[in-house]
Design a protein that fits this description.
It is built from eight helices and 19 strands. The protein has about 325 residues and is α+β, with helices and mostly antiparallel strands. The radius of gyration is 20 Å and the shape is globular.
Length: about 325
């Protein structure tokens, strides 16, 4: 059964029945903690009564400085909503700056020049073993490479992403990857239930996204097989696996799209963003964003992050 771990400014804590038990480890990074699973196990079996989880000031369980890689259009529902054919969507990756990682209860800060701020709840895979380019990933050894899961929110500045046709800037500002609250350390058999994980996201209590991972086009096995053909991964690296339907951005109706294609690029984008500015689903100053991932029976629970949107002045 999976083990949930929290990180605070003073160390790591394992969770047992809503109590947080201090892990006696020198691990300062996620990678170092993954290499010291014995200390986590010892904490869980200790006589320590622990402290209430609610008393802890929790940080991102993925420590800074690691690679952050993400998949694009990886849910059937999201691909269809974007006007794509899910049967022909290629397996595509992009990078996010490691500095975009923030804690599960920190504010999401929108830069002053960004107009259209969007959300994407995603399951993050935390790599547990060195994977040089060319590593052979199989169904038999997949669990050796994926050590943990986390909730992530792939925050996106759509008005920067779309005209530039590149994702790095639009998704890499500080606080644009809220992560956690818990690091779910996987045990044998846990990955067999990956497709049962349900992704949910609310804005001010309004449920915007709600879909199981079974809606994914490419599952972790296919994803890591493709990624490790060209990209080295190391313990503690974070891989975001895509988001389901329900984001603020949605494809325009086909007739509108056809007409827009006949316009000069500058005119097309001016009209598109004028229309998008009227969309009330984009994140506003003070919005509360909650993102959670768990199996419906709660056997695997990645927790719920709660972040507030703040507009930089």
């Amino acid at each position: 059964m999976s083990v949930n771990v929290l990180r605070t400014a003073d160390g790591w804590y394992a969770i047992r029945e809503q109590r947080a038990l201090r892990v006696q480890t020198t691990a300062a990074t996620t990678a170092e903690l993954l290499a010291d699973r014995d200390s986590v196990t010892a904490a869980l079996h200790s006589a320590d009564a622990g402290v209430p989880v609610a008393d802890l000031a929790v940080l991102s369980p993925v420590t800074p400085g690691r690679r952050v890689v993400a998949q694009m259009a990886n849910f059937v529902s999201h691909a269809a909503d974007a006007g794509l054919d899910p049967q022909s969507v290629p397996l595509t990756f992009f990078r996010k700056a490691s500095g975009s990682i923030s804690g599960p209860y920190e504010d999401i800060v929108k830069p002053a020049h960004v107009r259209l701020l969007d959300y994407e709840v995603e399951i993050g895979l935390v790599i547990g073993a060195p994977m040089p380019a060319g590593t052979e990933v199989t169904a038999a050894n997949l669990a050796d490479h994926i050590a943990a899961l986390v909730v992530t929110n792939d925050v996106s500045a759509r008005d920067l992403q779309l005209p530039k046709t590149q994702f790095y800037e639009a998704k890499s500002y500080p606080t644009f990857t809220p992560t956690g609250p818990v690091l779910v350390l996987l045990e044998e058999g846990d990955l067999d239930r990956f497709a049962e994980l349900r992704l949910r996201l609310w804005v001010n209590g309004d449920l915007r996204q709600d879909m199981p991972a079974s809606d994914m086009i490419y599952r972790p096995l296919e994803t890591l097989r493709a990624l490790t053909r060209f990209q080295r991964l190391d313990p503690g690296d974070l891989l975001l696996t895509g988001t389901p339907v329900g984001t603020a951005l949605s494809a325009p109706p086909k007739p509108v799209e056809v007409l827009a294609s006949l316009l000069p690029a500058a005119t097309k984008w001016r009209l598109f963003f004028k229309a998008q500015a009227k969309n009330p689903k984009y994140l506003r100053d003070g919005d509360l964003v909650e993102a959670a991932v768990a199996t419906d029976d709660g056997a695997i629970d990645l927790g719920c992050q709660r972040t507030t949107v703040r507009y930089a002045r």
